[in-house]
Amino acid sequence: MNNIDNIKIEINDCNISLNKDVFNSDHFGIKMGNINIENFDVTISDIDLSRTFESLIEKAKEAKFKHLTFKIDTNNKQLVKCVEKKQFSLADTLITYLFDFKKSILPEMNHKCILGDCKEEDIETLKEISRTSFQIDRFHSDDSLDNYLCDTYYEKWIENSFNGFADKVIVAYFNEVPVGYTTGKVYDNEKYGHLVLSAVSSESRGLGVYTSMIYEGVHWMKNEYANKVDGLLVGTQINNIAVQKAWIKLGFSVFDSQYVFQKLL
């Protein structure tokens, strides 16, 4: 049964759902939701798929949703065409890389920074790094969202990560001053762990800090969770070439890619 925060529609064996994103809704002050699809059936006709999304959008409006996000595999042309016809806008293209614990090997590396666990006294500095580090993400590219709230979104994210949202927050230090961080998370019943959010202060970029943090993240997850996950995933915008070069250097390989579509209701 549907409720005001969760909507489900079935078509053949395919399940399409819309779920309220509580964190995003609270932060931006509008009801925001994420569309998910399971068991997509390529035999679904374009007409049936179109009608299903029309129904989903109408139900979303009735439930007072104002903003929808839908991540679609880049090879699913049928879904892409469908949501474009429903006036969803392309906000981002994401690419994901995998470090496979059985196949990938970390190279030898000399770290120029000190790496350690995040401490409470680091948080304000990390929040400032977060506020100024993200500009090409799907939030900043969305004209319907306030730019100040897009900046402070990442401040909240790193603070919440330290307070339990992440399993690990690794911090890089120069002269005992935090200059960057990366967060790690392992979800139950998932094959791979994740390095989720990373940033380096503007004055410390180009010095190998980011590569060192990802190296440490791989080392941590492999030591702590090798009996639970088969590797770890990292993701970014497709035009963020610098971090992709760092991942390749460390032994990551391309895993998948997604389009991020958004619609304002």
Task: Give your account of this protein's structure.
It is built from 7 helices and 11 strands. It has 265 residues and is an alpha+beta fold. The chain starts with 5 loop residues before the first strand and ends with a strand. The mean pLDDT is 94. It is globular.
Offer a concise description of the structure.
With 265 residues, the protein is α+β, with helices and mostly antiparallel strands. The chain is built from seven helices and eleven strands.
Keywords:
2 domains, 265 residues, Acyl_CoA_acyltransferase, eleven-stranded mixed sheet, 34% helix, Aminopeptidase, alpha+beta, 7 helices, 11 strands, ribonucleoprotein
What's the CATH topology label of the largest domain? Aminopeptidase
* Biggest β-sheet strands, sense, barrel: 11 strands, mixed
Structural class label: alpha+beta
The share of residues in helices is: 25-40%
Q: What distance lies between the first and last C-alpha atoms, to the nearest angstrom?
A: 23 Å
Ranges with pLDDT <50 over ≥5 residues? none
Major β-sheet strand ordering:
1-2-3-4-11-5-10-9-8-7-6
CATH architecture of the largest domain: 3-Layer(aba) Sandwich
State the domain count. 2
Domain N-acetyltransferase: 113-265
GO molecular function, one term: acyltransferase activity, transferring groups other than amino-acyl groups
Protein name: Ribosomal protein S18 acetylase RimI-like enzyme
Organism: Psychrobacillus insolitus
